[in-house]
Amino acid sequence: MMDSKAKSHRAMLQRIARRAMIERGLFPDFSPKALTELDRINAPATRTEEPTRDLRNLPWCSIDNDDSRDIDQLTVAKAMSKDSVKILVAIADVDAIVKKGSAIDDHARQNTTSVYTAAETFPMLPEKLSTNYTSLNYGTDRLAIVIEMMIAEDGSLQTSEIYGATVHNHAKLAYNSVAAWLEGNRQMQGGIGAVEGLGENLHIQDRVAQSMKAFRHMHGALNLETIEARLVFDADELKDLEVERKNRAKDIIEDFMIAANGVTARYLVSKMFPSLRRVVHTPKRWDRIMELASESGFALPSEPDSRALEQFLVKAKTADPLRFPDLSLSIIKLLGSGEYMVEFPGDSSEGHFGLAVKDYTHSTAPNRRYPDLVTQRLLKAAMAEHSVPYDKDELEALAKHCTEEEDAAKKVERQVGKSAAAMLLESKIGERFDAIVTGAASKGTWVRLLHTPIEGKLVHGFEGMEVGRRIRVQLIHTDVERGFIDFEKVD
């Protein structure tokens, strides 16, 4: 029988999550005014303004996590000729229901993102919308913004078009099962087999995504592969961490969304509209990245060069695939985090160093990311030849706010994750582990265990530690309430 402490695992983490939200200035609950607005919404939107195409007959499908309920995008492919394929990405038209300046929009604007913690999700939009009326749910007709892209055999983009449409999700699929099927490790699942032509369509999507991925990496996009862990509960008892890795189904969505985001950014430029760009600057810690490469026998140029870095990453993955996620994590830390910046007509943004693209916005997840909803409103106004729905000062304030609140949301997620990890390690005080240094700064040195992806602070023996260094550590203290996990270096 489960003891009372085990029973309280989820409840304790939920309490910690809500406290962390409030401490970071995020709203864990919707306001009474927003809920009153929500009560008046009792159906999905229908198009009443500009003409919309009827694309419900195409074999659209969604591919997401097993437990995802807020579906932002659908994909489908059309083989056009021997040398090209048309890829269509449908993005949920959230703005059709969530209007700028509404109480629901005010909540989304404050939090700027859905916050996914180990024990509870705090959605940016009420679930009545994000998992129903503004979600591209299986078996439903929904309004969408479609990004249509003609992709050449080498993975390059030839032409693109954006328009409104009505779409229908014919199959709700999950990353892991689709990847296993694509790789020949599993028979066709019911969701694929039940839709005529969907299996063949997914194979086309997979082939095109792989060519797009190869094209991006050839031009300097970084081949990074980190370890993501998902907490596993048995009822309300926390049992384990389950490692999740990239796969071919995730590649389909990732590569199509990167391309769609680029098309959206360039479309706004063509219409002389401002755009909210996602920028990852040229890395300031290039010297340390050079050192990491040198330790593996690879010489990087003295000036930041994404193509040279990608060549190093490819060789490093081939040489030591088991440790490559640790190297990737170190590189990501040294690259630094991204930020939102406004590009006005005539400006030129720095671009996204890690993706090796200059034109990049966030536009494909408007149910869970506020910059995407802002971009959708800009996009719809440009398509309809209306005026810009945000003024210059408002957009600049939004870019700064979205960067800050996205950082706050990540800190909440990390804080709750650390509390959960501390729960798992409570009984292992005194045990020793292999680890890698993931952060080294004046505020502290951090390490991540190699065999269980848990991060903690190195409180003794941290002198001279650099990001990427592998060391042996001993667990000396945990504090679930504050999410503290302390290690000391041992020989």
What can you tell me about this protein's structure?
Helix content is 37%, strand content 24%. The chain is α+β, with helices and mostly antiparallel strands and 491 residues long. The chain has 2 domains: 4-281 and 339-420, no CATH class; 429-491, OB fold (Dihydrolipoamide Acetyltransferase, E2P). The strands form 6 sheets. The chain has a 5-stranded mixed β-sheet with strand order 1-8-7-4-3. Strands 14-15-16-18-17 form a 5-stranded mixed barrel. It has a two-stranded parallel ribbon with strand order 2-9.
Question: Which labels suit this protein?
Answer:
491 residues, alpha+beta, OB fold (Dihydrolipoamide Acetyltransferase, E2P), 5-stranded mixed β-barrel, 14 helices, 18 strands
Helix and strand topology:
Layout: H1 4-7, H2 9-23, H3 32-39, E1 53-54, E2 62-64, E3 73-79, E4 84-92, H4 103-111, E5 115-116, E6 121-122, H5 127-133, E7 141-152, E8 157-168, E9 172-174, H6 175-182, H7 190-193, H8 198-218, E10 228-234, E11 237-244, H9 248-270, E12 275-279, H10 286-295, H11 306-319, H12 324-335, E13 339-343, H13 370-383, H14 392-425, E14 432-441, E15 444-449, E16 455-460, E17 470-479, E18 484-490
What is the approximate shape? globular
Strand content range: 15-25%
The total of beta strands comes to: 18
Low-confidence stretches: none
> C-alpha Rg, in Å?
23 Å
Distance between the termini: 41 Å
Main sheet specs: 5 strands, mixed
Give the proportion of residues in helices.
Answer: 25-40%
Order of strands across the biggest sheet?
1-8-7-4-3
Structural class: alpha+beta
Number of domains: 2
> Total number of helical segments?
14
Instruction: Report the mean per-residue pLDDT as an integer.
Output: 89
